[in-house]
Write a structure and sequence with these properties.
2 copies of one chain form a homodimer. Chain A is α/β, with parallel strands linked by helices and about 400 residues long. Chain A folds into 2 domains: about 140 residues, Aspartate Aminotransferase, domain 1, CATH 3.90.1150.10; about 250 residues, Aspartate Aminotransferase, domain 2 (3-Layer(aba) Sandwich). Helices cover about 40% and strands about 15% of the residues of chain A. In chain A, the strands form 4 sheets. Chain A has a 7-stranded mixed beta sheet with strand order 4-10-9-8-7-5-6, with helices on both faces. In chain A, strands 11-12-15-14 form a 4-stranded antiparallel beta sheet. Chain A has a two-stranded antiparallel ribbon with strand order 1-3. In chain A, helix 1 packs antiparallel against helix 13 and helix 5 packs across helix 6. The first copy, chain A, is globular, with a radius of gyration of 22 Å. Chain A starts with a helix and ends in a 6-residue tail after the last helix. In chain A, about 55% of the residues are buried.
Chain lengths: ~400, ~400
């Protein structure tokens, strides 16, 4: 049986085969970058039209009450919560991942007086590490980076917070949340998990792992749109005492009393700062609804099967290509990364053929497998194109080697 | 000549009379709340459709380059700059007003070591004052509030930053930016102006006033939509040394080098933190383009004429109603506020008649005059309804007195 026949059989038997039709994907494109920007749900343009024309245009200021804009951050958070093993009142959608990281690093420092170290790993997603820098310049935090293998040894009495990304953006490696959370707690530290590359792609059980804090982004597997609002999670046990420094009016107990004194809202609401981004939240809600409806069980099963199919086919066609992701699908996110000296022009040559993956400096070719809309036959076609480009050297043209201003 | 005849004459002679047709306003509504949430420009739904269907849906991840998403924050900032007397490279659109205030308070503290006091006035817009609280809890800042008359006396060697709202949200009182900025500088302090109720409604000349920092919101007179991204201004002379603690990847000199070390972008770009909110920025750009096209000169002239017409008609019909705004239109923003013991039910009774102003606790009736889409005849109708409601006591029903969950 050829790979193509097998791909078609797998598609025919796929319990999620109907889901692709819920997305608007361009013709002739195999989209392997849903881990960077998720595809457009078909329901989104209609919902945006409604929020713009009816809620904003017709309802005007009244829509804060009549269209429930006031509780949109909470509502999206509550819908997102079951996807990551959280209770509904533990998650709120707001701001960006970066800003939410800042809030929760600061909250950990406030909760662990006398400890200043924020422990992470080198090569973590840049914004996570960068968000320590500002607090370091203020004298509030100290950065410590240790390779994941050395994390246990680096957890000492100075560590206020262990901050890690659950699924690594570059390699797709997935960390053992349960074990690392316990290790941090044993050392008296709190833990903050960045779920940006996890949510909607892999199983996450924040509650079961006894995690303290988490953040994640809305524009990858949640399909919330470019620059979608992010989310933040605070375990119930930390909510009453939570102190975060972005003390804006939407995090106040009673914003419309217009008092001069800040009095934080109970619960996770106190993570809000400014006026919520209604247009972005409305688009995110559509994406979250869709993922919740498809169900994490089916999505995770298909994600693993898709990446297994891809890695098998690539190993067969390009046996020299170095897999930078873990070989075991339960130890990685919904992606495969390969190392190649010429990853950049290979990626450009793929894009020219409608196969959209991405490049991560200096030498990573990254393919995401968004299980909601990707078919096995798409993966087959992508592997065929990749094999052709690599074996013939078709990537080696001035056009493909020319770097974009931003890659 | 009756007020109605005069209103119609003023409308006929209005150089901005064509502008109303550029907005989508509901039938039967007189919208006096453009200072809280601006109306929907007719061009916005089409632009949103384009950014959602074409740029996101068709372009997918490629649109970061091909649709210039990477520079959208800068582009909107540059278009906004001339409306507030700034150079194009001094303004950037991002995050919320609250978050931008936090960045710039922190930047002032970094630029004035040894000084911890942030000076503002009691009753300033809550989020402005609240944003000091988080920094105070971290031991970085100290809040000092002084009535505007006593601000000069409160400016001493401990003050790092004078932070004031240019047009007061409740009363509409406009401060003397030139004089107060100079006073702050004479005391060795920096100054941060909140332009949320100014931008697009009154003349602002940040450069001419030698202002250091400013912030403002996109959803009022700029008509950027509910929860639109905000903006921040940093005078060129402060940009090279600017330190702000929300050190996210979009504020990095080269985000896609994925280095572990934070190296701030040159200029105002370093105010960026997380991934920009593309949907919100796209809507904001339409609103900014529209206001820029109409021109601040014409808008300011009409704003003053509208509020003069309104205050004259109200004084005639309801001579006892106490004006909480300055009597001189050049000393106030594009709004009029009145004090009334029963402001809340009066506001509800007006809304029931399609006259949408708003209530600000405890006793303020607030009417905004967005000059781009408001007609003199609208103002006439609003005053008629107000006079009828107040003189007949039509506000005094259980329905109008019942408070919404959020007012």
């Amino acid at each position: 049986m050829t790979d193509l026949v097998r791909a078609r059989e797998l598609d025919a038997a796929d319990p999620l085969r109907h889901a692709r039709d819920l997305f608007d994907l361009p013709e002739g494109v195999v989209y392997l970058d849903g881990n960077s920007l998720g595809a457009l749900p078909k329901a989104t343009p209609g919902r945006m039209e409604q929020v713009v024309r009816q809620e904003w245009g017709e309802g005007l200021i009244r829509s804060w009450n009549t269209a429930d804009w006031f509780t949109l951050s909470q509502r999206v958070g509550a819908k997102l919560a079951p996807l990551i093993g959280a209770a509904q009142d533990e998650v709120i959608a707001c701001d960006t991942t970066s800003v939410n990281i800042f809030k929760l690093i600061s909250a950990a420092l406030a909760a662990r007086p006398g400890r200043k170290v924020i422990l992470s790993e080198p090569g973590n997603f840049p914004t996570d590490i960068y968000m320590i820098a500002g607090l370091e310049a203020q004298g509030l935090a100290r950065r410590r980076l240790a390779d994941v293998d050395a994390i246990m040894a680096a957890l000492d009495d100075d560590v206020a917070l262990l901050m890690l990304t659950h699924v690594h953006y570059k390699t797709g490696r997935m960390l053992d949340m349960q074990r690392l959370t316990k290790a941090a707690h044993d050392a008296g530290a709190l833990v903050l998990w960045d779920l940006s590359h996890s949510t909607g792609g892999v199983p996450v059980d924040l509650g079961g792992c006894n995690a303290d804090f988490a953040v994640g982004c809305g524009y990858k597997y949640l399909n919330g749109g470019p620059g979608a609002p992010a989310f933040a999670y605070v375990a119930q046990r930390h909510q009453a005492g939570l102190q975060q420094p972005l003390t804006g009016w939407f995090g106040h107990r009673a914003p419309f009393e217009f008092s001069d004194d800040y009095d934080p809202a109970p619960g996770v609401d106190r993570l809000l700062a400014g006026t919520p981004a209604i247009l972005g939240l409305a688009a995110l809600e559509v994406g979250v609804d869709l993922i919740a409806e498809l169900g994490m069980g089916a999505l995770v099963a298909k994600s693993r099967a898709l990446s297994e199919f891809a890695s098998g086919a690539i190993a067969e066609r390009l046996s020299d290509l170095e897999l930078a992701s873990p070989h075991n699908p339960v130890q990685r996110g919904s992606q495969l990364s390969y190392r190649h000296e010429h990853a950049y022009p290979i990626c450009q040559a793929l894009i020219a053929r409608g196969i959209i993956g991405d490049f991560r400096a200096p030498d990573i070719l990254r393919f995401g497998f968004a299980p909601a809309y990707l078919r096995y036959e798409d993966v087959y076609n992508a592997v065929e194109a990749l094999a052709e480009i690599v074996t013939t050297g078709a990537w080696n043209t001035p056009e493909f080697r020319k770097r974009a201003a931003v890659t």
